[in-house]
């Protein structure tokens, strides 16, 4: 079993990415949040976070990937996920445990709040390393296939897990940057700071943009495969709406003065 950990700022963005597509996402358990709507779920996480407003990166997003040779029941996955959260110290806080069905190997997404139910901050120091050590202990405890067995299947699994992380990091970066942009050029500059390149697909021999892809490291994804709003049409619509809102916002500020 392999552990990957991402920390972030937007509970709404994380909940939307993990839970919106009900064809691929199966919620195994939630604690302290409403699971029937990713909007309400994100809101519930955010309410708790506001008890400690200085904690800006309060989102814990963990990915547990099982070896293709391990066939694990939902009940067993839930048990392992809860023990994992306990092992890394993410206790007395809100969480959601979600199984995804969009790859040929079993994997879980865990969302947790680094601000606990008492409004205290849970330390995220070395959280990635803590996650890896917890995964190693639980792999032995539950007699799963250890990640140290470097065969071709394991190599593929590691790549798949890294691919999931890259996909989510791109989603998060675009989601954070887009509201601050007026043009595609603005978006390119913002994403370059995060190590993400934009690639365009043009119509025939023209300069008409027909599609958009995002590349981070060795992984590249069509915008529409990350989220429907991140297709070229979705991004251009968002940029246009933001430009149209500017005069209205300026007028409101003028009236206040």
Q: How would you describe this protein?
A:
The protein has 2 domains: 2-149, BirA Bifunctional Protein, domain 2, CATH 3.30.930.30; 172-256, no CATH class. It is built from 8 helices and 8 strands. The protein has helices at residues 11-19, 38-49, 74-87, 127-141, 152-177, 184-192, 223-226, 232-256; strands spanning 2-8, 25-31, 59-65, 95-100, 107-113, 196-202, 209-216, 219-222. Helices cover 44% and strands 21% of the residues. It has 257 residues and is α+β, with helices and mostly antiparallel strands. A hairpin with a 6-residue loop joins strand 4 (95-100) and strand 5. Helix 1 packs antiparallel against helix 2 (38-49). It is globular and about 60 Å long. It has a 5-stranded antiparallel sheet with strand order 1-3-5-4-2, sandwiched between helices.
């Amino acid at each position: 079993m392999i552990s990957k950990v991402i920390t972030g700022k937007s509970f709404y963005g994380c909940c939307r990415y993990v839970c919106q597509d009900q064809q691929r996402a199966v919620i195994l358990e939630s604690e302290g949040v409403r699971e029937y709507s990713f909007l309400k779920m994100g809101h519930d996480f955010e309410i708790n976070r506001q008890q400690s407003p200085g904690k800006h990166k309060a989102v814990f997003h963990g990915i547990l990937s099982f070896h293709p040779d391990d066939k694990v029941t939902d009940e067993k996955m839930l048990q392992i996920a809860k023990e994992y959260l306990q092992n890394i110290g993410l206790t007395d806080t809100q969480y959601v445990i979600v199984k995804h069905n969009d790859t040929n190997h079993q994997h879980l997404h865990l969302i947790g709040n680094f601000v606990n139910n008492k409004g205290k901050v849970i330390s995220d120091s070395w959280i990635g390393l803590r996650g890896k050590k917890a995964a190693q202990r639980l792999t032995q405890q539950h007699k799963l296939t250890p990640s140290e067995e470097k065969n071709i299947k394991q190599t593929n699994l590691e790549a798949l897990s890294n691919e999931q992380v890259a996909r989510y990091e791109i989603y998060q970066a675009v989601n954070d940057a887009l509201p601050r942009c007026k043009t595609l050029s603005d978006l390119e500059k913002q994403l370059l700071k995060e190590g993400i390149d934009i690639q365009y697909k043009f119509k025939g021999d023209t300069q008409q943009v027909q599609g958009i892809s995002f590349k981070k490291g060795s992984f590249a994804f069509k915008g529409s495969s990350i989220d429907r709003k991140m297709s070229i049409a979705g991004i251009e619509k968002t940029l246009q709406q933001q430009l149209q809102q500017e005069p209205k916002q300026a007028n409101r500020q003028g009236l206040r003065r």
